Amino acid sequence: MEIVSGFIITYILLINLWLFTLMGMDKRRSRREKWRIKEKTLWTFAFLGGALGGWLGMIVFRHKTKHRSFKRGLPVLTIMHLLAWGYLLNRFYL
Asked: CA gyration radius for the chain?
């Protein structure tokens, strides 16, 4: 059971770190008017568990803040993920 919980925690940390990094990369590319990361890609990583990293990236890099879908969607998705993780932790590990 410890291996599974370790894997889950590692997964959550890595996917959030990855989306945070992608938000920074996309912001940098937008400033330089270069090829951009598709919004579909950003949303895919957010839905796969990286919403918190995306939200923090949005705040830190001031990126996608004018997009209503990101401005409202990432916080809502983050709360949904936190509730799901809390439920699973409580149900299976406590």
From this structure: 15
The four Cα atoms 50, 51, 52, 56 give a dihedral, to 10 degrees, of 110
Interval 6-55: pLDDT, tens: 788 899 999 999 999 999 999 999 999 999 999 999 999 999 999 999 99
Instruction: State CA 86 to chain mean position distance.
Output: 17
**24: number of Cβ within 10 Å:** 14
- Closest to 81 measured CA to CA, from 57, 38, 42, 45: 45
Q: For residue 11, what are the CA distances in angstroms to 14, 61, 72?
A: 5, 23, 24
What is the C-alpha separation between 49 and 78, in angstroms, rounded? 8
- Return the structure tokens found at 24: 């920074």
Please tell me the distance from the alpha carbon of residue 71 to that of residue 84, in angstroms, as a whole number. Answer: 21
Would the pTM of this model clear 0.85, i.e. be above it? yes
